[in-house]
């Protein structure tokens, strides 16, 4: 276990970084358990103090060759959803203009919307590849927020991506609102529900574009792996299933940015933050190592 803050996350100028972590401590549209605004700091703490630098899934020390930096958290806690999305988009634009791999840490899932928009503006044709227990295809959150509902809620992330013109592939899904399943069927969306029946190759082949934005809500995993999240759902994806699928995704497509959301830590040194930190580190390796 590392106790050196400079082992995985280093202090170098952004120009020398390969990966730029953007913490977004926001939970302004939360509908389940709270606490996701504490997620970024918990994940970063785990990356600094709880991870080994050797990644056995890649048989390498990713941090030897790849500079990973973390920016200060965005000051979004008191913003409206619309203001938060704009703030994230502007900062993501800045990072992407430097041709860095953008890795957002949430925070609730709504933080993805601004980043997806920034990536879409830069790359044009784009698929949003989602790991999640939920479809996140509501048009807004008016079914549970009666005063000032928002189209930029955590339950609307994938709907906003589709409205931007993105293709989507969703996997791990196992809880849907009736309007969402109707929308999925009407629009022939590529949704792979749990338990997975499709092969990895079938899921990857559903990704129609070269460029991909990867969005991960940790409730897509089995709750035994990610228990501290706002809206856990029984069942879910297993650890090695996800790592294998993501490895093939990175081999087959150009994953240009990523987020990990909905970590809601209740206790210090918690399992969910530790696993999210390991996931972030492994994803970094997948992005830059010859796999």
Q: How do the helices and strands line up, and which of them pair or pack?
A:
Blueprint (H helix, E strand, L loop, with lengths): L18 E6 L14 H11 L4 E2 L4 E2 H4 L2 E3 L10 H17 L3 E6 L5 H12 L3 E5 L25 H7 L3 E7 L4 H10 L2 E4 L6 H6 L5 E7 L21 H14 L1 E8 L9 H18 L3
Parallel strand pairs: 1-4, 1-5, 5-10, 6-7, 6-9, 7-8, 9-10
Antiparallel strand pairs: 2-3
Helix pairs in contact: 1-9, 3-4, 4-5, 8-9
Annotation keywords:
291 residues, Arginase, Chain A, 8-stranded parallel beta sheet, 9 helices, 10 strands, globular
How would you portray this structure in words?
By secondary structure, this protein is an alpha/beta fold. The chain has one domain: 3-Layer(aba) Sandwich (Arginase, Chain A), CATH 3.40.800.10. 34% of the residues lie in helices and 17% in strands. It has helices spanning 39-49, 62-65, 81-97, 112-123, 157-163, 178-187, 200-205, 239-252, 271-288; strands at residues 19-24, 54-55, 60-61, 68-70, 101-106, 127-131, 167-173, 190-193, 211-217, 254-261. An eight-stranded parallel β-sheet has the order 4-1-5-10-9-6-7-8, with helices on both faces. A two-stranded antiparallel ribbon has the order 2-3. Helix 6 (178-187) links the parallel strand 7 and strand 8 (190-193). Helix 1 packs across helix 9, helix 4 (112-123) runs parallel beside helix 5 and helix 8 packs parallel to helix 9 (271-288). The model has no long low-confidence stretch (mean pLDDT 94).
């Amino acid at each position: 276990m590392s106790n050196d803050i400079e082992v995985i996350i280093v202090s170098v100028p952004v120009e020398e970084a390969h990966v730029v972590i953007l913490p977004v401590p926001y939970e302004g549209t939360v509908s389940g358990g709270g606490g996701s605004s504490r997620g970024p700091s918990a994940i970063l703490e785990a990356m600094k103090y709880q991870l080994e630098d050797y990644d056995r899934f890649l048989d390498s020390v990713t941090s030897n060759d790849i500079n990973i930096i973390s920016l200060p958290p965005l000051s979004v806690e008191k913003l409206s959803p619309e203001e938060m999305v704009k703030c994230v988009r502007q900062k993501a634009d800045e990072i992407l203009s430097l041709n860095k791999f953008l890795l957002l840490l949430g925070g609730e899932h709504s933080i993805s919307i601004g980043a997806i928009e920034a990536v879409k503006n830069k790359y044009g044709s784009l698929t949003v590849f989602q790991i999640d227990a939920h479809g996140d295809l509501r048009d807004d959150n008016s079914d549970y927020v009666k005063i000032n509902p928002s189209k930029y809620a955590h339950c609307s992330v994938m709907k906003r991506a589709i409205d931007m013109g993105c293709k989507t592939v969703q996997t791990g899904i196992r809880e849907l609102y009736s309007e969402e399943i109707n929308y999925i069927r009407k629009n022939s969306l590529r949704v792979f529900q749990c338990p997975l029946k499709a092969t990895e190759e079938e899921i990857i082949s559903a990704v129609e574009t070269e460029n991909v934005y990867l969005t991960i809500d940790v409730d897509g995993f089995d709750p035994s792996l990610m228990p501290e999240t706002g809206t856990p759902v029984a069942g879910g994806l297993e650890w090695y299933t996800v790592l294998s699928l993501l490895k093939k995704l990175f081999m087959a497509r150009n994953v240009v940015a990523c987020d990990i959301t909905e970590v809601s830590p209740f206790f210090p040194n918690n399992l969910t933050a530790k696993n999210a930190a390991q996931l972030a580190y492994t994803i970094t390796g997948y992005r830059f190592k010859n796999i």
